[in-house]
Design goal:
heterodimer, A: mainly alpha, elongated, B: mainly alpha
Chain lengths: 166, 64
């Protein structure tokens, strides 16, 4: 590795790659089903805010690229009327956006996103049906405790995940 | 026997996706998964930046 800049660059590359992969996977799983729409929306917001953060990062390279991007972008931003508050030609202001405000915004939205997943749980598979044996078997009864862990499922699941990661 | 698949609508309805899951569950540790993820991606990024990073040549000045 030659410099921190390379590491930082590829970190962001992978951040966006994984984010887009996550977006596609959740799209094809239709993971917004069953009242989980806010989870999807907070995901969209985090993606959009990340793009703005990446944009300010491009502007902070302080090279010919960033100069070109800034002076193309200023026209668009002035056209929509936000140029006075978000001035792409002001490097100091962009540092504040890039280092403080936008990372905090991304972090806050991602925390909310994860909390919503925790509240609603993950969506069941698309082909999960009422007639599935495990659902018929584990109908909530007044006499039984709500947790229904199967030792077989836990073991195979642990091996599966442990094997995939390490 | 026909299977009734859940709708892909975002609205809450009386279906499998909307009711609390009553099937089997497995335990997981969010903090552990986060740490493993950060370490794995950190190693990956370190490797990729070592291979594809640009050479760090010192800038030319009047002194050199």
């Amino acid at each position: 590795m030659n410099s921190f800049a390379d590491f930082f660059w590829y970190m962001i590359e992978f951040f966006f790659i994984f984010m887009v992969v996550h977006l596609w996977l959740k799209f094809w799983m239709a993971a917004w089903r069953g009242g989980r729409v806010l989870t999807w929306i907070t995901g969209v917001i985090s993606f959009v805010v990340s793009i703005v953060a990446a944009f300010t990062g491009y502007l902070l390279q302080t090279n010919f690229d960033s100069q070109w991007i800034a002076f193309e972008a200023k026209d668009a931003l002035n056209a929509v009327g936000v140029g006075a508050w978000f001035n792409v030609a002001n490097v100091g202001q962009l540092f504040t956006w890039h280092v403080t405000l936008l990372p905090l915004a991304v972090g806050a939205v991602v925390v909310l996103h994860v909390l919503l997943v925790r509240v609603h749980g993950v969506a069941p598979p698309l082909d999960a049906a009422e007639s599935d044996a495990q659902l018929l078997h584990n109908r909530p009864e007044a006499t039984e405790p709500p947790e229904a862990t199967e030792p077989v499922g836990t073991e195979s699941g642990g091996a599966e995940f442990g094997g995939a990661v390490q | 026997m026909t299977r009734k698949n859940s709708s892909t609508s975002w609205r809450k309805a009386d279906d499998v996706a909307s009711r609390p899951w009553t099937g089997s569950v497995r335990e997981y540790d969010l903090i552990k998964e986060l740490i493993i993820g950060v370490v794995v991606v950190g190693v990956l990024v370190f490797g990729v930046s070592a291979i594809f990073g640009s050479p760090d040549e010192p800038s030319v000045s009047l002194k050199t």
